[in-house]
Amino acid sequence: MWKQKALTLTTLASITILGLSGCGQSANGVNTATTSSSSRPAYSASSVNTNAKQITETLTISPDGPKYTPANFTLPPNTVVNFKIIDKDNGAATIPSGYIKVRGTIDGTMVVNGKKVSELDAKNVAHTLTFPSLNLNVPVPPSATVAFSIKTPRKPGNYTWQCYAACGSGQSGWGGVMSQMGAMQGTLTVKA
Predict the structure, then answer these.
(1) Mind listing the pLDDT tens digit for each residue in 104-150?
(2) What are the backbone angles phi and psi of residue 153, rounded to the nearest 5°?
(3) Domain that includes residue 85, residue range
């Protein structure tokens, strides 16, 4: 509770995402292909007021479960948020086509281990952070640190996210944690 209050009272806070382990086979390689017009970001760099309040959020993907922590978080509306994901997962998972590209970040890219990219090789995705209603998708490679920025919606509300890499249990990989709120899916609450 204190952490949420501190987030709204300060101009800089921290959210980190740590990765999961054991979801698939180890893979490597980052594709730096340009973003196509069909995956244009929801916010262009020119539409973001760089003098606006900025917040840094760090999410953790823990190796136990796997699961994102926090899975549910609250942020103010119309605010630039700098996300950092630390993925401790050492293996890739099967991912549907279309989820290898970065969508909805301020500039349509993310930074993976210090290198700016707009998509990953399909064999090099452990998890995603995907908000379908915000047209936001960030693929996360195994054993990597990922950074990206978004601008929260102006309209307060609840926005559900889901991991679209099949890192759960069962033959399809979509069982267990993949269907549990608070594990590989959660909610962003935008609240003034």
Answers:
(1) 999 999 999 999 999 999 999 999 999 999 999 999 999 899 999 99
(2) -60, 150
(3) 2-190
Three-point CA angle 188, 99, 109, nearest 5°: 75
DSSP 35: P
Give 143: exposed, middle or buried? Use CB within 10 Å, 0-12, 13-18, 19+: middle
Question: Which residue is listed with tokens 């606006």?
Answer: 52
> Which pTM value belongs to this model?
0.72
Per-residue pLDDT tens for 8-66? 222 233 333 333 333 433 333 333 333 333 333 333 333 334 444 667 888 767 666 67
* Residue 78's CATH number: 2.60.40.420
Residue 107 burial class via C-beta count within 10 angstroms: exposed 0-12, middle 13-18, buried 19 and up: middle
- Per the structure, how many domains does the chain have? 1
Contact 110, 177 (CB under 8 A): no
Torsion sign (Cα): 79, 86, 122, 188: negative
Question: What is the C-alpha to C-alpha distance for residues 40 and 102, in angstroms, rounded to an integer?
Answer: 9
Distance from C-alpha of 23 to C-alpha of 166, rounded to nearest angstrom: 8
